Description:
Shape: globular
Strand content: 15-25%
CATH topology: Cytidine Deaminase, domain 2
Mean pLDDT: 97
Bound molecules: tetrahydrodeoxyuridine
Strand order of the largest sheet: 1-6-5-4-2-3
Low-confidence stretches: none
Number of domains: 1
CATH class: Alpha Beta
CATH architecture: 3-Layer(aba) Sandwich
Amino acid sequence: xxxxxxxxxxxxxxxxxxxxxxxxxxxxxxxxxxxxxxxxxxxxxxxxxxxxxxxxxxxxxxxxxxxxxxxxxxxxxxxxxxxxxxxxxxxxxxxxxxxxxxxxxxxxxxxxxxxxxxxxxxxxxxxxxxxxxxxxxxxxxxxxxxxxxxxxxxxxxxxxxx
Length: 162
Ligand code: THU
């Protein structure tokens, strides 16, 4: 038997001003989108902003529903909107953030498993890594080089019959 290790790198920024200008803009767009979330039930407002290869920034947020499972996370709302609006245009980066109105989030918000799977689909589709920038309301900002890093050994279309 052998043991294999799967590792990934997180680049930690202490301050938003340490980020690339382009990344600062993306985080600002995600933060603004979070304020527009429809989070009537959880009150946890999540915002996402995707930078597309054509330079456009697409934003979205979580949309909740009285029939709880019918709502959708910010990341999927944004990814589906981006793909629906600009089919065939790769995603370069996604910034994700959240607002907890009760206890301000002092660590980076991270995407749920279903959102990682959805983002992984677009990463595979275009064959290009999607960078991920995670932030809270304050504290560190984390940058990760790909969705693959966040979802190792992911299920993909290559497993399906032609
Ligand atoms: N939520 C997101 O929008 N993204 C995630 O990755 C995790 C959770 C939303 C779903 C729900 O509206 C609220 O946060 C509480 O779970």
